[in-house]
Amino acid sequence: MTIASPTPARTLNQLLWRLWWLKAAGSAVFIWGFFQGYFLLLRYPHAEVTVMPLTWLDQITPMQWWAWIPYLSLWFYTCLPPAFMPSLRPLAYYGLAVGLTCLAGLLCFYFWPTVVPPFERPAGSSLAMLEGVDTAGNACPSLHVAIAFYSAFWLQAQLRAVGAGRGWQAVNWLWCALIVYSTLATKQHVFIDVLGGLLLGGAGAVLALTGYRRWFAGRFLPV
User: Fold this and answer.
1) Phi and psi at residue 8, in whole multiples of 5°?
2) What is the dihedral of CA 98, 104, 105, 107, to 10 degrees?
3) Cα separation of 198 and 74, whole Å?
4) CA-based nearest residue to 105, from 12, 42, 16, 181
5) What pTM does this model have?
6) Which of 8, 74, 81 is nearest to 35 (CA)?
């Protein structure tokens, strides 16, 4: 009698519950620590703040109220790759790698403080409230975009490792694309910020995944 292989959903669920308490606490502490540095640089810029220029793409992209939903979904999306790590050492590696990527972005903000031009938002709207929580400074590169793109690369590798089909992988990239687009549709970033974020997140993910495959033999599955 042959034993059926576990489905992708079952394997992901198994990974999710491994060290779940450490993953949850670690993600919360990481996000808290990141925002300490982020808002410190926002309040006390090291140099003169540059206003990012608009491109034709910014001019034709309308402000859309619904975009705050995928925009804020980043904080759930970015917790998925560490949640699916199989054990402690790969989890620690991921934390170090994503931390270095964020640090590279913060160093950009330190040496080159940037802000997006002011956009008029309807008073009392969800977009106006979003601006009050996440101000328009620390613009380029967009770390919102960088971490979304970074996470998408890792999720792609994890989904392929558990045998998830193209539908799962398409959902991953669609979610990432919606987050990236939301940064433009909420007017929290302009196109040049997005381009910088894609470059930072893509480079960080490629380097980190290359190291992971070398040191952990590409092992994304539980043992």
Assistant:
1) -55, -40
2) 140
3) 15
4) 42
5) 0.91
6) 74
